[in-house]
Amino acid sequence: MTYELWYWNGIPGRGEFVRLALEAAKTPYRDCTREPGAGQERLLEDMNRVREYPPFAPPYLVVDRMVISQTANILLFLGEKHSLAPADTAGRLWVNQIQLTIADMVVEAHDVHHPIASSLHYEEQKAESLRRAQVFRETRIPKFLHYFERVLIPHEGWLTAGTHWSYADLSLFQLVDGLLHAFPKRMAAVISDYPCLSGLHKRVGALPELQDYFASPRRLPFGDGMFRYYPELDGE
Amino acid sequence: MTYELWYWNGIPGRGEFVRLALEAAKTPYRDCTREPGAGQERLLEDMNRVREYPPFAPPYLVVDRMVISQTANILLFLGEKHSLAPADTAGRLWVNQIQLTIADMVVEAHDVHHPIASSLHYEEQKAESLRRAQVFRETRIPKFLHYFERVLIPHEGWLTAGTHWSYADLSLFQLVDGLLHAFPKRMAAVISDYPCLSGLHKRVGALPELQDYFASPRRLPFGDGMFRYYPELDGE
């Protein structure tokens, strides 16, 4: 059984949270839109197939006869299947909760450069972006990062008790990575307030099971995805 | 064992998705912030308690020694515990996926009147709201509702195969209810395009297990919650 991952071609985006879990679990998968001769059209065609459980949007995972969409839902499935999260109810729900909180911050990071509509260009909503970016930098970044720092402390550096990472640790790495890319000045100014979070970012970046992936062309640069760097939206 | 539900006082908001599930399951619960003499301060005090798994934001549910937050995560738990969702993997993930898609639309409905910051008043971001509302009405409402209509058809009116509702059916009712409140003109213009969704809204509204609740003061009006009615943001 090889998983089929479907996501927009050319950006890490939300697909990257799934890729990190698949790669760290050493699970074979096809990144369907990125296969030679494939591309965005193949994704749109596949999304329109008649299915019992059709996705609303990518990413989605096709496995056996199941079609699983929504990033946090895919990770819930992979967590259970590949032991990438605790098996007990409290631990499993905790990891899912953190994943959903990460997802909330990802939406906000995206909406900084698209506060009016995803369907419009950044340049068409730049005035609104400048306003939203200021609030995001000054209020939202500290609020979210303070929370993640707070929940890392009692667990000695991972989100779950014990010495092993969960899929939400990988996602938290990706979130911090994205923020460092999109808001380098702001992150440089505040990162020392979050030593546990910064430590987690470094530890996931150094995980032996991810080194092959990070060195491969499968790992995409941020580009025009959720996390975008516009100098005018950043600031200390 | 009585559940403790914690949410902002005075608005249905995200807490309402949890309330509907608890009420329809006929499960006893305390709505802690709304108890006599309680209120917002009691919520803030409780949120700051030192806990192994602290919430990022309300709603959260306290049960036995667990603290479960994030709306979709609470519902995942209640769904498993009270059979409010299918027990098999495919059905359970499907209901979770729909719940997450509903949550995505709730964020967008909220951001129509708060496109810059939740911490600012509507009047401080009204110009941006007018722009975002137009996109929401013309593009996002049809996109989401078309999807929900599409997934209801093969299942004869509920989101899951079979003759029983799941917690996501209750949430979909609440979503439509909120849209009818916030965008009455727009919804009146498009609702006939979505007969299955409209039918689900009516059927959940008539569920025998919810009639006591709907007639009680426990069911709150929309007010200044996620779904708000501003005439200038509505239109056909």
From TrEMBL, chains A, B:
Keyword Transferase: yes
Keywords in alphabetical order: Transferase
Molecular function GO labels: glutathione transferase activity
The keyword Ion transport belongs to this UniProt entry's keyword annotation: no
Record-linked SUPFAM superfamilies: GST C-terminal domain-like, Thioredoxin-like
Record Pfam families: GST_C_3 (PF14497)
Any GO BP: glutathione metabolic process
Transmembrane segments: none
Domain GST C-terminal: 88-222
Domain GST N-terminal: 1-86
InterPro entries, alphabetized: Glutathione-S-Trfase_C-like, Glutathione-S-Trfase_C_sf, Glutathione_S-Trfase_N, GST_C, GST_superfamily, Thioredoxin-like_sf
PANTHER family the UniProt entry points to: GLUTATHIONE S-TRANSFERASE
Protein name per UniProt: Glutathione S-transferase
Species for this entry: Eoetvoesiella caeni
